[in-house]
Amino acid sequence: TKTASIRLVDLDEDGVDRAFRADVLAGLSQQQKAVPARWFYDDAGSQLFEDITKLPEYYPTRAEKQILSSRGEEFAKLIGPGRAVVEFGSGSSVKTPLLLEAIDPAAYVPLDIAGDFLRAAAADLSAKFPGLPVHPVEADFTKRVVLPPEVRDTPKLGFFPGSTIGNMVPWTAADLLRSMRETLGEGAMLLIGMDLVKSKDMLIAAYDDAAGVTAEFNLNLARRINRELDGSIPVEKLRHKAVWNDVFSRIEMHLEAMEDIAFTVSGRRFAMAKGETIHTENSHKFRRRSGNLLLQAGGWTPVKRWLDKQRRFSLILAEA
Ligand code: AVJ
């Protein structure tokens, strides 16, 4: 299998719009066309992802919530009170409270590149936990982040739920884990979600649901390119495709041309032959050994691993 590797443009460098344009133009110029998955999440895409989490076929969100709501006592014992919880990505309305309730933290520090989501998540959490200091930080957490002075001397717990780590190829994932370790400092712990390898049928169904919500989520990326980058992609001639890549243990999402097409993006011309695809997402699935190996490659030592009742999803606690 041939894979595309794309150099991500630095978000701080030129601003989000220029980064989006640069990623898309570079990605569409490759032999295997590809756009990094992080560009799914404009307002429409974020809403569609919310809808995905409620689909009967999309088990990861429910499975992870089940672990978080049933293992509170173990979290409390292994993590202890008084840590600053640093969440990578804006807090999801349901998962974060389950963790915070269990461990009696000293502060909550959500990190996100999207300021609006960040402020909304921070306000939400403050309302639910009136006594808890909340320090949102607008930052690109793929690099080392300087945390607010209020939590400088507080031991940290990093929280990275959702199996978002699975969107990255292993070397990028290991880099991210190392950055997190630098951001979190001495004595830190990390609680991270990793989706598990399971039957191909269950995996494909989770990424190609009967209601077509995941298809809309995928197609929205092409619509976003048209909207924001003055594109003329004929979206109605693309179809959503989810495939299992057994070599890399991952679900891949693609947008496949149903006939020969040509279009422009920001004044540049592109063509796709019938059957050619734009690779839009990797979602790696883990086993105990592969998950532990990845954590160790990123500088973390696994401490404890929990699965949901149906053994579909894992949550791993690690220490620096
Ligand atoms: C939010 C990245 C974990 O990979 O399962 C859901 C995104 N893509 N359906 C995942 C997603 C298609 C999701 N993550």
UniProtKB/TrEMBL annotation:
InterPro entries: EgtD (IPR035094), EgtD_Methyltrsf_superfamily (IPR051128), MeTrfase_dom (IPR019257), MeTrfase_EgtD-like (IPR017804), SAM-dependent_MTases_sf (IPR029063)
Stored Pfam families: Methyltransf_33 (PF10017)
GO biological process entries: methylation
Coiled coil: none
SUPFAM superfamilies in UniProt: S-adenosyl-L-methionine-dependent methyltransferases (SSF53335)
Domain of life: Bacteria
GO molecular function, a single term: L-histidine N(alpha)-methyltransferase activity
EC number: 2.1.1.44
Annotated ranges, domain Histidine-specific methyltransferase SAM-dependent: 20-319
Keywords annotated in UniProt: Methyltransferase, Transferase
Protein name: L-histidine N(Alpha)-methyltransferase
Upper taxonomic lineage: Bacteria, Pseudomonadati, Pseudomonadota, Alphaproteobacteria, Sphingomonadales
Gene: egtD
